[in-house]
Write a structure and sequence with these properties.
Radius of gyration: 30 Å
CATH topology of one domain: Fumarate Reductase Cytochrome B subunit
Low-confidence stretches: 678-684
Shape: elongated
Largest sheet: 5 strands, parallel
Number of helices: 29
Distance between the termini: 87 Å
CATH architecture of one domain: Up-down Bundle
């Protein structure tokens, strides 16, 4: 036993050190602080396996195996101890004590659950052959080890009980309440000779004790490495809002120092990103929910992660040696070595990067909190800012942003034309107002989206809200530029907008945004640039006005409406209930939920700067698939709360010849029910 433990633990220590050294080639990143929150989330998502239930059969099978291993870890330690002293037991876990009896029945119960869990995964891999999973011999070998380990443990118990019965001259095993399964195995084999029973006992003992160590040493070289890395990966997750992308710090300084903007090489990913690569379970839940993958695009979040991980492993020796030699600094010593070449050249196809809609369906699904969007955007940053390579259509958006502060290139002075007849205050003239309506580019310039902006403003006026707009002082928040990888352009807008808002002491006001992308940027990304604001989406603001009785929906609207969740409102900011509360407050309205709803709602296809470029080749268009999901509820109307979603769904309805189905924003439906008051009443 001493040799087994020394060899097993020594080999694992060697492998773990190798993986640690490889992880440390990554860029420095701080993941500390908020210990209480980190521990709470670790308990919920790592030990509580909270996300596993999203795929019920596989999820509960995994929960059974995980819980079983947690309980049986003590059993393994007992067996290792018995390799030195056959009567060894952990403190109070002897079956002579009540505590020991309670543990024993737990152990038997969880052994059975682990066996059932492994059988479920054998079924999913061998019979059902789930397409989202990586099917191969590795998974089957690991499942086989777990199954054999559990069976060996039961036969060890059964043989021990049978031998004890023979030694006591009763020659019969009785079922003990605290060891029911072991007792049944003992009854099954008690007729065997003492020599055979002794052999079974020793086989059960050594198989269990050895397989645990064999399993441990396989982990660093397989997808089951997540058994070790998942808990720290969850603990070290980013605690910022999911809607925030990490900025390129000191972007001007990097330009002066000629440092890379974005991710070019594998060692430019942070050590935490490398831990993400280690932690991928290859379950495929991310790809199963990805709208790009669902519609036949090249992007698969799972394979994106695995391709980077495989490249990392392939060049492990060179990467670690280079880190030790240069401490991670770039060197100019002639020809670029293979491990240091651009990831875009041969590892990740640019088409994979540009297919992402940044919807975060992958991240919401991942049970071990791997992030994908930040890595994809970081690689886009390199493509755009270093290589100048991006879809041609984005050039128009970039030029429009640079010349007119909106991605369509509309004249900047026309930004407030939508409000010309509404007599809305300007913040420059009324800096004391408590509420600022942040309009956004699409709501200010797009003819269809203007109607939503006007409806929102009319409702605010009817509710007596004292608000103003920035008018021509407002610029694009920069969201399209940032998601397209043009971080430098984004930071120009962020800095300028924060300066304007802080000049009006907007931090003391409430900012209402009708566009979820503006809402997300103002709330979650501007704090990195000195702008901390109280920002709400217009659906939340309107829901509160209805609750407070300041808006009273009275007109009956006899329609069935299917509501579509915007990704930047829902998954990025967890605003799901307010839009539904507004709809449910309207008399006669029936709110329908598609099968793919709330945090499982499919993206419309416009996020991640897709609104401003052509969609990557695939089997179907994302907006058309999402439109069909909504139409499957048989609605009279489709409702949304985002100008991008409205455009994509309107196009989807037209493509499917279903223009008989209206596409309305939450604010438009509420205004119809509340009714429009006269201008004089509104002013009063």
């Amino acid at each position: 036993m001493a040799l087994l433990l020394l060899a097993g633990c020594g080999c694992f220590a060697y492998s773990a050190k190798k993986r640690w050294n490889l992880m440390m080639i990554g860029a420095k990143e701080t993941r500390s602080g908020n210990i209480g929150q980190r521990l709470a989330r670790t308990v919920l998502f790592a030990f509580g396996q909270w996300r596993m239930k999203r795929y019920p059969l596989a999820g509960f099978a995994h929960i059974m195996i995980f819980a079983g291993f947690a309980i049986l870890l003590q059993r393994t330690m007992i067996l290792w101890g018995r390799g030195f002293d056959e009567s060894f037991n952990l403190w109070l876990l002897s079956t002579d004590t009540m505590m020991g009896k309670i543990y024993s029945i737990q152990k038997d119960f969880f052994v059975v659950l682990v066996i059932l869990g492994t059988l479920v995964f054998f079924y999913l891999r061998v019979i059902k052959r789930l397409g989202r999973m990586t099917l191969g011999t590795e998974g089957l070998v690991i499942l086989g080890i777990i199954l054999v380990m559990m069976v060996a443990d039961l036969f060890y118990d059964g043989a021990l009980l049978a031998l004890t019965a023979k030694a006591s001259d009763t020659d019969s095993v009785h079922i003990a309440w605290y060891e029911p399964v072991g007792s049944m195995v003992g009854i099954f084999i008690q007729g065997l000779s003492e020599n055979v029973l002794t052999t079974i006992k020793h086989l059960g003992f050594w198989i269990h004790a050895s397989l645990v160590l064999i399993f441990l040493n396989l982990l660093p070289y397989s997808k089951h490495f997540h058994v070790i890395t998942a808990i720290p990966n969850i603990y070290l997750q980013d605690l910022h809002s999911p809607g925030r992308l990490p900025p390129i710090v000191d972007i001007d300084g990097k330009l002066e120092r000629e440092e890379t903007l974005g991710i070019k090489r594998i060692n430019q990913f942070s050590w935490k990103s490398i831990m993400d690569f280690y932690t991928c379970t290859e379950c495929g839940r991310c790809t199963d929910q990805c709208p790009a993958a669902k519609t036949g695009k090249k992007l698969s979040p799972k394979h994106f992660t695995l391709d980077l991980r495989n490249f990392l492993y392939k060049h492990e020796t060179d990467l670690v040696a280079a880190k030790a030699k240069t401490n991670g600094a770039d060197t100019d010593d002639g020809e670029t070595p293979e491990y240091n070449k651009d990831l875009i050249d041969g590892v990740i196809d640019p088409e994979v990067l540009w297919a992402c809609t940044s919807c975060r369906a992958c991240e919401t699904e991942c049970p071990v909190f791997i992030t994908y969007v930040d890595k994809i955007i970081d690689m886009r940053r390199y493509l755009v800012q270093e290589r100048g390579e991006f879809p041609n259509e984005l050039q128009t958006a970039f030029r429009g942003l640079e010349s007119s502060a909106n991605p369509w290139g509309f004249p900047a002075e026309d930004r407030d034309n939508w409000a010309s007849d509404l007599n809305i205050k300007k913040l420059a003239e009324h800096p004391e107002v408590p509420v600022l309506l942040w309009v956004g580019c699409a709501p200010a310039f797009d003819e269809r989206a203007k109607k939503v902006t006007r409806a929102t403003a009319k409702l605010m006026k009817q509710a007596g809200v004292d608000f103003a707009i920035l008018g021509n002082e407002e610029q694009c928040t920069g969201d399209p530029a940032r998601r397209a990888g043009n971080e430098y352009l984004f930071q120009m807008f962020a800095t300028a907008n924060v300066e304007v808002l802080n000049g009006y002491e907007a931090g003391k006001k409430k900012i209402v945004a009708t566009c979820p992308h503006c809402f997300n940027t103002l709330l979650n990304e501007y704090p990195d640039f000195g702008g901390k604001f109280d920002v709400v989406h217009h659906t939340t603001f309107l829901a509160n006005l209805v609750k407070d009785g300041k808006l009273k929906p009275v007109k009956n609207i006899d329609k069935k409406v299917a509501y579509h969740d915007s990704c930047y409102l829902g998954r990025h900011n967890e605003v799901y209930d307010p839009p539904r509360e507004v709809l449910n407050s309207i008399p006669g309205l029936t709110v329908l939920e598609p099968k793919e709803t709330r945090d499982r709602g499919m993206c419309c296809g416009a996020g991640g700067a897709q609104m401003f470029k052509e969609e990557e080749p695939g089997d179907e268009r994302v907006n058309e698939v999402r439109t069909q999901q909504l139409l499957d509820t048989k609605p009279d109307c489709v409702s949304s709360a985002c100008p991008f979603c409205m455009r994509m769904l309107t196009d989807g309805l037209a493509t499917k010849d279903r223009e008989d189905v209206e596409q309305l924003d939450i604010a438009e439906m509420l205004l119809e029910s509340v009714g429009e008051e006269s201008s004089s009443q509104s002013e009063a």
